[in-house]
């Protein structure tokens, strides 16, 4: 796991100094993170990197995972889909399962840390234990709740309002709540296999292994085979743009064996791409972080033509590699791209085709977009900014209602 | 010859902020105007200054979120231009800045502008921020120390001492100019820094300009 000092060449010494000064304000406090899984998924990935860095900064941090059976996780999946706005039937016994598992976990967990930081809906009801406890409770919602099912949100909202504050990832996810709502965007780790710098020889070797020719500029979309990622629209846009430009499209996604709809979408994509030698459809194992990194770095243009998106961190991943990104203006993507400055925002197949043609034919402008995009990500979407926002959140929770907080230099801080 | 030395040092601080969401949103210009009239001043500040910190490396233009939404989302370029051209540097209070924004929209509506609703997901979300002031390790008693601090601090520090300083007492003056004048007696240098229009520079560009003024003054001092 990367140490804080390893981020210095990327984010600068002043950023690390800020982190140390902020963490110094929290010395002696205990922070407990609780989520529903130790491995797999974006939340566990972030926590596995964030918790060691918090400890390195001497913020006494622990991480616990709630336990539940298959029925509990099936209910949580229903909650997750319903909060995303999908029509899902949630039955009275589903709520009972959720309550029962919460109570079982409450019997086994010590929740007396100074700050209890609960992630996502699965452990949200743990807050029922806080009663007269004097510690601070924060709820972090990592999912898009802009159009939640009224039934499920109506069940969760009374729990959420027992927290001191909640945190969402983008402005559209804000709800009408009686507690403060902070906005903290997710982040990418520039030192992870998915994002770290690669030698040209590493990139070539990986492309050779995957049989990806480099005789034409590569245009890439990385996403699972899901209709909301609009892979068929990507092919249409590419074919329109290709009438004017030489290029090769790569659609990269994960295996769809366990997802009937994903498998169907993958089959449709393969059918639509069939017969066009300039379209490659790659289905790589979920652990192919280095391969994804190499493909993105070898690409001339990155696409993210989603119809709907939570935050859409693949956009930041592309921008971080200095690539021009054309992406739909949905979810958190407009936070990552300022149109025509740090990337291109589009709303349709035609718009995507138009800008793809422009960028393939204007490499100078495309390069500038990529440079601006990388700098924008460096300043706003790296793990160190995320860490800083969490430290600020913990400090803000200690000063409820304050709009302005003046911090003093901790005694003993290096000068 | 040794330069002047201040009795009280300039202490470089840094500004950090945590974005908070108010839950208020506007689907059309009429709703937007209603919220703009009533939201706390911290919301006005956030939307007229957030861009400077988050996009400062891209463009020096004084882009604000209101102008961006009007142009890019409402598709009303005339209004967007009107809001973008409001001279933020001219206002030494957020109340005055709010009034100017409100007046611009009212005038625009009087011309018969259509008040159409934006699609779902494109609403304007009103935000504010919890602001933190954080001391850095830099403090200066003279121009050499001041230049060293200017070189070493983060752009968040420049943001605090140049932009935010103008909106708190003594109003209308940045922290650097105030200290250079009242702490060090460098009136001409203080004036030069005060005369910069910070909204037309990127923060790194601003750092380079101020540093250039200071180093030039140090050379003058060195040559007697």
Describe the protein in words.
The complex is a heterodimer of chains A (415) and B (224). Helices cover 42% and strands 14% of the residues of chain A. Chain A has 15 helices and 13 strands. Chain A has 415 residues and is an alpha/beta fold. The model of chain A has no long low-confidence stretch (mean pLDDT 92). In chain A, the strands form 2 sheets. Chain A has a 6-stranded parallel sheet, covered by helices on one side. A 6-stranded parallel sheet of chain A has the order 9-8-7-10-11-12, sandwiched between helices. Chain A has helices at residues 8-11, 13-24, 42-56, 70-83, 92-106, 150-160, 200-209, 231-242, 260-273, 289-298, 313-320, 333-336, 349-361, 363-380, 383-397; strands at 30-35, 60-65, 115-119, 136-140, 165-168, 181-183, 218-222, 248-253, 279-283, 301-304, 325-328, 344-346, 404-406. With 224 residues, chain B is α+β, with helices and mostly antiparallel strands. Helices cover 51% and strands 15% of the residues of chain B. Chain B has helices at residues 29-38, 41-54, 65-73, 77-84, 94-110, 143-152, 155-163, 175-182, 187-195, 203-222; strands spanning 10-26, 124-140. Chain B has a two-stranded antiparallel sheet. Chain B is elongated. The N and C termini of chain B lie close together (7 Å). At the A-B interface, helix 2, strand 6, helix 14, helix 15 and strand 13 of A face strand 1 and strand 2 of B.
